[in-house]
Amino acid sequence: MSERLVVIGSQWGDEGKGKITDYFACRADMVVRYQGGNNAGHTVVFDGHKYALQSIPSGIFNPKTVNIMGNGMVINPVSVEAELKRLYEQGITDYQLYISDRAAMVMPWHADLDGAYEAMKAGKLIGTTKKGIGPAYTDKYSRVGLRMGDLLEPEYFAERLRGALEQKNIELRALGLKEYDFDEVYNQYMDIVSRIGHMICDTSDMVNKALESDKKVLFEGAQGMMLCIDHGTYPYVTSSTPSSASVPVGAGVAPKWIDNVIGVAKSYCTRVGEGPFPTELFDQRAHDIRERGHEYGTVTGRPRRVGWFDAVVARYTSRLAGINYWALMLFDVLSGLDKVCICTGYECDGKILETPPSTISRLAKCKPVLIEMEGWNEDVTGARSFDELPEAAKKYVRKIEEVTGVPVGIISVGPDRQQTIIIDEKLKNF
Q1: d(Cα 163, Cα 160) in Å, to the nearest integer?
Q2: Tell me: the pLDDT tens digits for 193-214?
């Protein structure tokens, strides 16, 4: 098994990436988060304790692991401090964390604008977390945004901040929103940098040196491939690209360093927010799965929409991201269902589609082509090998492999680290 591994979400986010990144982070020398911001939610459970992460990499629990918040992220310094404080209160005090000096900053007005933009959409909401992520990425690409490295040069930061406020206060005023005072923001961020400034550096250099030294490096994405700004269900998407293809840019490394990709997928499907969802369930089964799987957003608390496993999506994201293995999550949630289904295609306008259409207008017309399989009643939470699973459960896994063309390397049968079945022995060598 390669010592350079990427873990991505392969559906609409919330697939259980936190557990898988935590599983491999225990063995990694370095964990690198390469996109997104504090709109992501990773839940990690071990030793009977639950930890909720938003922007900090999952290797934070291992004192020996170097954690990198890469340049492809948009970082809210206030949120980072709050997250570190929560971890401190939970006893996580010994860690190594570094923040890219080239990462864009999420500023206070970004959340205000995020909410205002969403409100203007009226009945056509995107379903944003209103954390300011989209406006921060907008400012980054408009070249008016501030970056983490700016904080290390007070005079330069002051110049950049004045320029940003000249533009943003005009926009805020036009929307009837609170304007920001230069001195107030400047003093707040100079106060913050006095505490976290030692973490801000050229992380690309750190990551490349680790790779060149044959260290075990884990690249961690946020959200999921169907929320990708380029390839997802646009416009109901996030503002960055969760794909393994964005690792080189978002982490500051060459493509040659990306070898193996694990696609994290629930044993069923969920999504939060608006947008077409072809396999969505609306009956008692959806309620039962939601409650058993605790399907509520880590960041927002919103109930997640629930549907059957979608092989159309799985094949599509596998092709785009070069997925080598599936990590099949929340497998235990399906126990007790009489029947389980897998979507193998979409029926749209009398034709069977093998890949998702590009527009949501057409995707909304798609009906799932389902294959129905026998369910199982046995409790699988104690299983530690594939052979210990019920026969019907094994058939379900093998059918997913068959219809997606990608082997299942990992099955999660519970939230704890120990409740993990490694099917492919190569994955044990990371």
Answers
A1: 5
A2: 999 999 999 999 999 999 999 9
Neighbour tally for 334: CB within 10 Å: 21
Q: CA neighbours within 13 Å on the CB side: how many for 151? A: 31
Phi (first) and psi of residue 239, to 5 degrees: -105, 15
What is the rounded CA–CA span in Å between residue 232 and residue 12? 9
Contact 30, 217 (CB under 8 A): yes
Residues of the chain with confidence (pLDDT) below 70: 1-2, 41, 122-128, 298-299
Nearest CA to 41 out of 298, 264, 293, 275 is that of 298
The pLDDT score that the predictor gives to residue 124 is 62
User: Distance between CA atoms of 386 and 384, rounded to whole angstroms?
Assistant: 7
User: Known catalytic residues?
Assistant: 14, 42
H or E element, residue 6: strand 4-9
Task: Give yes or no for a cis peptide into 235 (omega within 30° of 0).
Answer: yes
Instruction: Give the distance between the most distant pair of CA atoms in the chain.
Output: 67
| Gyration radius from the chain CA atoms | 22
Q: Is 399 left (phi over 0), alpha (psi -120 to 50) or beta?
A: alpha
- For residue 80, give the nearest of 145, 15, 33, 18 by alpha carbon: 33
> Do 381 and 414 contact (CB within 8 A), yes or no?
yes
pTM over 0.85: yes
Neighbours of 374 (CB within 10 A): 14
Tell me the one-letter amino acid at 289: I
Tokens (6 digits) for 260? 């193996």
Determine the 3-state secondary structure of 368 from DSSP: strand
Q: CA–CA separation, 78 vs 141, rounded Å?
A: 22
Query: In which element (H, E) is residue 370 found?
Result: strand 367-374
